[in-house]
Every structure is written in structure tokens, then in C-alpha cells.
Design goal:
- The structure is a single chain.
- With 415 residues, the protein is of the alpha/beta class.
- The protein contains twelve helices and 15 strands.
- It has two domains: 290 residues, Zn peptidases (Aminopeptidase, 3-Layer(aba) Sandwich), CATH 3.40.630.10; 114 residues, Alpha-Beta Plaits.
- The relative contact order is 0.17.
- 34% of the residues lie in helices and 22% in strands.
- The radius of gyration is 23 Å and the shape is globular.
- The strands form three sheets. Strands 1, 2, 3, 4, 5, 6, 13, 14 and 15 form a nine-stranded mixed β-sheet that branches.
- InterPro entries: Amidase_Cbmase, ArgE/DapE_CS, Bact_exopeptidase_dim_dom, Peptidase_M20, Peptidase_M20_dimer.
- It holds the Pfam family M20_dimer.
- It comes from Cytobacillus mangrovibacter.
- Keywords: Hydrolase.
Amino acid sequence: MDSRQRYQVLLNKINQYNSGDKGITRIAYTNEEQTCTHAFMRMCKAEGLDIRMDQCGNIIARREGRIKGLPPVLMGSHLDTVYQGGKYDGVVGVTAALEVVKRLNEKGIVTDHPIEIISFACEESSRFGVSTLGSKAMAGLFDKEKVGNLKDRDGMTLEEALSLCAFEINSIEFASRRDEKIKAFFELHVEQGPVLMNDNKKIGIVTGIAAPVRLSLIIMGTPSHSGTTPMNMRKDAFLGASEIALELEKIAIEEQPYGTVATVGVVDIHSGAMNVVPGEVEIKVDIRSTSVDSRQRVLTHLFQTIELVGRTRQLEIISHEIISEEPVLLSAEINDVIQKICEKRNLPYNMMPSGAGHDAMNMVKLCPTGLIFVPSVNGLSHHPDEYTDLDDILIGIEVLEEVVLHYSKIDSDFS
């Protein structure tokens, strides 16, 4: 079996762990995700790696280096998905890291620095509304007071979900590696957008990662009979929510030059019925940008809109901040190395920001960090039809292997 076939088999093995009929559903801290996690640990063990799982559920698979005491070089991503997601988001980065190790073992290469594969827990926000929990824990950024009581769609809290997996929320602080020296971290990921495909480029070298502000808005009006309540006497919570959403779109479009985006991704009409004027609606808002100033302008306009809609439609609107994260810049030095690798291999590349969040954004707090994109067909992501061509993934793996080798040897250059 050649490396191409071997990698495809590996990808297929991971994606057999799925609880849905459409796409891939492997939600954080569920049976499917935990089973997949333990299967991946066995795959790493088969390559001679030392395996451990930290207090948040992150997998750390270590390949020792030649020289004792040197800081490790890390690479990885995540195995959890959104509801009805695809086969590539996150999984490519984890499986690519294992493929790099397989290649090093195959070639008999012993690096100076140890190399670690990291599979981060709960990268997706689809279950609890907060993303990258595993890498937050590793970076010492996990706030148990803020997130412990967040609930999933079934009413289970994060603390309860952790307990069912034999994790204790009060122990997660011990997953932090802030006091440890780490040489570098690398994440290979599908782009999740159309830019590389449209520009006919094979590699995206990510310069910075946009970060979200996420809000929950409760809009309260008066439930009333749809047939007997005149239009001018209604306090329709859904129409108020709709007005807010449309105004949010308007201001986000004005901020497009800064790469800013805004989304209303959840709309929940409480006790909704066809013959009832909606009395209470919850919407969840995601605003993100690599520009703090631009994101703040959108947020300020949103709050002005909330005040105006509440007053003119006679609605009570309560806002709650779920999370607010800061955009990050990635290592210019690492990006320079990746750029040289691409040029040496005659690979067309883009220097580009990431509008989506990734575990790399938290690893910046621990060490120099690089994020490499490979193309997504039609830019589809978080969708059953997301697709990245196998040959493009293999190109990304080759770049990942070379940059990891560069950082895991004491004397390494491109001469």
C-alpha cells in the first residue's frame, strides 16, 4: 500500500465514527466522539508513540527525539464535528499529523526534538456555543465559571457532559502547558472557503485568525392570537428579531473591506405555533473579524439597533455575551519558512487571513504557531458535501512534513 492509499484508508477509518444519517456527526464528549478518540489513540500506539490524555480530553501522542530535554514540536487539529458536518474539517489536520509520523518512521528519521501529535477536544462550538475548549485548556485559558453551565440542545451542561466522560471540570486547569517550553505548533486545515480554489493556489499560509464575539439575544413581546390581533397592536418578537438580523447584515456589509462578517445562526421561537403571534424569540449572533476596531463598530451598531427596535416595537430585549475572543497574528518567522518551502517546491500559495477560528489561535499563547490551508472545493464547510481533493491534502502533508522536520532539527536550513 503506497502513502496515498494509506492516507485514504486512515481518513476513512476516522470517518466511520458517525452518529448521523447525513454527513458526519461526531459531537464533542459524545459516545461517537469518545470512541473515535480512543481509536485514534490506538492508531498512534501502533506507530510507537507514547500516548496520554489530559484532563480536558486532549490526546497527546509523543515521538521522542534524539536529544533529551529539548522542547517538543507539536502538530494537530481536532476530531469532533458540527451536526451533519463533513469528512475533512479538523480530521485532515489530525490524520495528516499521523501520516507525517508514519513517513518519518518509514524513512527511519530520528529528529533532535520530540514531536507530538495533538488531537484537541471540543474544537467546534456546535454543542455548547463555545469553541476550542481543548486548546483553551492547554493554553491555560479555560474559564470554568463562564462555560461550566452552558447547555447543549438537550439541556445538558458542559460540566455534566465532562463528568459522563470521566472528566472533572475542576481538574481542567491541570491540562495547562503554560509552564512548559514548546518549540512550535503547526495545524494543517482545509480552507473552509473558496479563495484558494478561485485563485488556483495549492497552499494558504495563514497570517492571522479572526475571533468571534458571540451573543444570545432574548426578544420578548406579547403572544397573541394571529387572527384576532390587529397588525398595529402586535408586539411581535420574531419581527423584532428579523429587523435586528437584517440591520446586522447591513452593517457587516459596510465593514467588508476589513474582512468582517456577522451571522444569526440560531433562531428559536419559544412555544411557536402557526396561529400565534410570537411572544418570545431567542437568536444567537456571531460577529468576527481580524480587525478589533471593525468588529467593535458592528457590535456598537448592533446595540444601537437593539435599543431602537425595542423602543419602536415595544419589545423587551435582553442581551447576553456568550464569549468574546481576540484576533491573533501567527508567527511571521514560521510563515517565512513555509513560504520558502512552497517556492522550493514550485507550489502556488496565498498569504491570507482565516475568518474561521482554529485551535492555532490559542496555541499562539504557548509557542510560535503556523496554520496551513489546503483548498476546499466550492468553499463548502460544516456541510455534508464539503470536499478537498486527496492530491491537495497530500501536498499539504508534504509541506507540513518539511516544516516540522525543519523545526525539529537543531541544524536545518534551505540551502
